[in-house]
Structure formats: C-alpha cells, structure tokens
Amino acid sequence: MARTEGIKVIAENRRARHDYDIVETIEAGMVLTGTEIKSLREGRVSLQEARAVVEGGEVYLHHLHIAPYSPGGPYNPDPLRPRKLLLHRREIAHLAGAVRVKGYTLIPLRIYLRGGWAKVELALARGKRKYDKRRAIAEREAARRIARALRARN
Length: 154
Fold this sequence. Notes:
Oligomer: single chain
Distance between the termini: 36 Å
Structural class: alpha+beta
Shape: globular
Order of helices and strands: EHEHEEEEEHEEH
Number of helices: 4
CATH topology: Small Protein B, Chain: A
C-alpha cells in the first residue's frame, strides 16, 4: 500500500501471511452501520475467520466479527453479518476472474481507518501447503542464525 498517512490500524490478520502466499493486495471501503463503526473505532473486531466472496457482481466480507456496541441497544446488527465491500467494477471483475479461474482466495489482511473512513486491505492469496510452511520457518531460522553469528563475530 503506497499511502500510509493518517492511517489508524484497527485489526490485523497476522496468521494470513503464515497460511497463505500473498499475490496481490487491494484496498476496499466497507459498508457499516453507525453502531458497527463505533465498535470498530473501539477496536472490538476479529479478522480470524473472515473471508471475502464475490457474489453477483459484488464483494462481501463473511465471518468478520464486529462486537455489538454496548450503548447501541436494539440497534446493533448481527455481529457476523456479511458486509459489502466497495470496489470499482474493474477491480471486482479482476478479483472474480482470479478466484474462479486460478483458484485464489480473498483474505482480509487488516482493517484500518483512513481519513475517518473504514477500509479493509484484501489479499488475493493462495493457500500454503504444510511443507511450504515448514520451509518458510526453516529459512527464517537460518537467517536468524546467520545474523546472530555475524553479530557475534563483530
């Protein structure tokens, strides 16, 4: 993401980079109700099981848990309801084609506020196999050992 000014990160999906190979990222707006945005500003959101799905020319975020806003009372919507994402038609067509043809998945990486607007960073990703995860861990540990040896030598 090129623009980082005025961004307040609300939630991050740290597990996504471990479980998926990220091919491309894209920023999308979110359609939220008043109590949802208040709860989001308090940081009461979970991205763990969230997935984005292209349905009928629209993109929806499923299984994103936004906790009910306590002063909201009866105006709180279902915490797990599908939430519409705001993207351009070309972006939706590109994502739909990649998901359908190439077998990618749409995973939310983080939710943040930029200029007061709720945004979600979506990743076009392919799931890693178990041996890929092991290889990534081994490479990371090898790099740590090398860095440690270089520091000890200096």
